Amino acid sequence: MSFNTDNLRELFESLQQFDTAISQGLDITFTEGPITSQLEYKIILPTDQEERHDIEQSLAIIAQRFRRYVGESWRPIRVNFTHSKPEDIRRHMQEFGEEIHFEQASNSLIFDSKLLDTKITDADPKLLEILKRQTEEILDSLKRHDNLISQLRYIVAMSLSSGECDSETAARHLNMSRRSLVRHLNEQGTHFRAIKDDVIQQMAKSALTKTESNISQIAQQLGFSETSSFDRAFKKLTGYTPRQYRQRALTL
């Protein structure tokens, strides 16, 4: 959903508004200043996962998103990490540049505020409205019920396009081990793959029938690196290829 907002400012506002609503062990804070702005990533409730890798990977994904729209040469003004400096930071420097600081008060990216007006050129406003509506419905459900499956559906919907949508990552967002997540889902007669497939199916159907996005764009937003993979997955779930489903919907 964040990737379909109008500009980077709205992207970060969306991350702050929606991601922290479900990731109860995380806190994402976006602060806009007159000259520089900051995105802070904080783990509130530690899990048995390696925090350092979680933090570094999350900030790297955000930095990569920046470069997609402002240019491959872009690097943040400063990056802060709360953990100690690793022995080898060559990979860190490739991702973040030279201004990397360890043992700081927060995990954060600091960047030029002027960049917040940068347009997200491949955004689809119609798809954004659908995703936002679905997300808000799931959030309403979470407010009414402390429901694991509702929480998991929300996490899946929010993480599909990042390519990091698996049971291990979902369990981390829910502040439990993967084994605990599997056990709880088994007790409710379901499993992670079934929930993920259902979310993909519902989001794909909405995008195919309610937007004019081409199928390759929809595939990318749902986490498929190749359109052919999306075609196969959608046909397995519905009996139709995405193109056939869209054409069928138009004739009904």
Topology summary:
Layout (H helix, E strand, L loop, with lengths): L7 H15 L3 E6 L4 E8 L7 H20 L7 E3 L9 H7 L3 E2 L6 E5 L12 H20 L3 H12 L7 H7 L4 H10 L4 H19 L4 H7 L5 H12 L3 H10 L1
Parallel strand pairs: 3-4
Antiparallel strand pairs: 1-2, 2-5, 3-5
Number of helices: 11
Q: Termini distance? A: 29 Å
Strand order, biggest sheet? 1-2-5-3-4
Helix content: 55-70%
**Looking at this structure, what is the CATH superfamily of the largest domain?**
Homeodomain-like
Examine the secondary-structure arrangement and name the CATH architecture of the largest domain.
Answer: Orthogonal Bundle
The outline comes out as: globular
H/E series, N to C?
A: HEEHEHEEHHHHHHHH
**CATH top level class name of the largest domain:** Mainly Alpha
| Proportion of beta-strand residues | 5-15%
CATH topology of the largest domain: Arc Repressor Mutant, subunit A
- Structural domain tally: 2
Structural class, by secondary structure, is: alpha+beta
Largest sheet: 5 strands, mixed
- Rg on CA atoms, Å: 19 Å
**Count of beta strands:** 5
Instruction: Flag low-confidence runs.
Output: 45-49
